[in-house]
TrEMBL record:
Amino acid composition bias (Basic and acidic residues), ranges on this chain: 104-117
The protein's name: DnaB/C C-terminal domain-containing protein
Pfam families reported for this sequence: DnaB_2
Family label: Belongs to the DnaB/DnaD family.
SUPFAM superfamilies documented for this protein: DnaD domain-like (SSF158499)
Organism per entry: Companilactobacillus nantensis DSM 16982
Annotated ranges, domain DnaB/C C-terminal: 22-66
InterPro entries assigned to the protein according to its UniProt record, in alphabetical order: DnaB/C_C, DnaD-like_sf
Annotated spans, Disordered: 73-117
Superkingdom of the source species: Bacteria
Length: 117
């Protein structure tokens, strides 16, 4: 575990994070694990790995990421359903368009009749 901790700190410091901030980041990951009653180093490593894979190397980025609401699409949190098309509204709009179109065509025909008479 001691070597894992050393390599984890190096992962952050290699990306420009200060050593003190890297320690703060690992401590924050441990606090999150404890809050979820997951008191294992592998759980903490999973949290840190997710941050590294998401290119989060500062406390500010990590806290912003953690505070963002998560969208879950599991069994109980399903994707939003698509809205069904209300065909009565579509048909009503089409009939209004057709009605005005017919009136325009009739007006043109009447105008043509008046010109020829």
């Amino acid at each position: 575990m001691q070597d894992d901790l050393k390599y984890t700190l190096q992962d952050f410091t290699n990306q420009g994070t200060t050593y003190a901030e890297a320690i703060e980041i690992v401590t924050y990951a441990v606090k999150i694990a404890v809050a979820y009653s997951a008191n294992t180093w592998s759980y903490v490593q999973g949290i840190i790995k997710r941050w590294i894979n998401s290119s989060l190397f500062t406390m500010a980025e990590i806290k912003e990421y953690q505070e963002k609401p998560k969208q879950k699409y599991g069994r109980y949190n399903k994707k939003p359903k698509e809205q069904a098309t209300d065909w009565s509204q579509v048909k009503a709009k089409e009939s209004l368009d057709n009605s005005s179109n017919l009136q325009d065509r009739l007006k043109k025909l009447r105008d043509e009749e008046n010109v020829t008479n």
